[in-house]
Each structure stands twice: as structure tokens, then as C-alpha cells.
Amino acid sequence: MKLHTLRPAKGSVKTSKRIGRGTGSGRGGTSTKGHKGAKSRSGYSSKIGFEGGQMPLQRRLPKFGFKSLNKIEFKPINLDELVELIEKTGASVVDVALMNQNGLIGKNDRVKILARGEVKSIKAEIIAHAFSATASEAIAGAGGKVTLIG
């Protein structure tokens, strides 16, 4: 075997159609585009979702739903996660920055503390954007302090 004898496997390489190379090529004249019409012209492009004049799918389906522009979305953090964080870091003040550093929330997330999990003792001040009523009662009952961020 020599370099000049190398060939691709039989059937693995197809020759491309050479379109618009005169009548002798068998693909001259209309260049496989048929006669007349927008699709035979150069520069033709159809709109996304165009279905040949049929009512497009996005117009056939009904509109639904509503997204409030003023809705405030909170990232929920439960008490059991807070207890884990306090045990891991030994912090006396748990705020948004500490939660972000430990990967519980993202940089711009607003936090709401929820009451899942048992709390025996939290000797820490919890600072967050919102608290559920049961969570704030549980924190206060366990010896902690609840502080809201404006």
C-alpha cells in the first residue's frame, strides 16, 4: 500500500450535483428549480412557519396564559437546609451573601424561608427577603432571630 493508492471506501463518497453548468450537464436550463414561481428566483426566502397559504399552526392554536410583569419570584429555602448551613459554617448570622457563597441561591435571587424540617435550636440571626409564618415562629421558638430585607 502506498499513499498514491489510497482511496475512500466504495460508496462512502458521493459526487455532488453540479447545478447550473449548462445543458450538457443534464441540470442546465432551470437548474432543477422547475418553471417560474417564487422558489425558482434567486434571493427567495419564506417566513418562518409559512405553510403555503394554509393558516399557520401558531395562528390556529388559541392564545392562553398571563405573565404578570410585577410578580416577585422567591427562591425557597427550607429550615432543614438552614440548619445544615449553620452546622457547616458555624455562622451566627445567616444572610443572602452566605447562602450565595455556599451555593444555596444565585447572585440575584430573592429568598423566602419555608418551614420544612425540624428545628431544635437555631442560635442565629436569619436575614432574608420573606418568611412563611410557620418558619418565623419556628426560628423564634428555637432561639433565633428573624430579620426581613426591605
Report on the structure:
The strands form two sheets. The chain has a three-stranded parallel beta sheet with strand order 1-3-5. The longest helix is centred in the middle third of the chain and has 11 residues, at 79-89. The protein has helices at residues 57-60, 79-89, 96-101, 133-141, and strands at residues 74-78, 93-94, 110-114, 125-128, 130-131, 145-148. The chain has four helices and six strands, in the order αβαβαβββαβ. The mean pLDDT is 92. The protein is elongated. With 150 residues, it is of the alpha/beta class.
Précis, in short:
By secondary structure, the protein is α/β, with parallel strands linked by helices. It has helices at 57-60, 79-89, 96-101, 133-141, and strands spanning 74-78, 93-94, 110-114, 125-128, 130-131, 145-148. Helix content is 20%, strand content 15%.
* Strand arrangement in the largest pleated sheet: 1-3-5
- The averaged pLDDT comes out at 92
Global structural class:
alpha/beta
Order of helices and strands: HEHEHEEEHE
Radius of gyration: 33 Å
What does the overall shape look like?
elongated
Low-confidence runs (pLDDT<50, min 5 residues)?
none
Which characteristics define this entry?
elongated, 3-stranded parallel beta sheet, 150 residues, 4 helices, alpha/beta
Detail the topology: elements first, then pairings.
Blueprint lengths: L56 H4 L13 E5 H11 L3 E2 L1 H6 L8 E5 L10 E4 L1 E2 L1 H9 L3 E4 L2
Parallel strand pairs: 1-3, 2-4, 3-5, 4-6
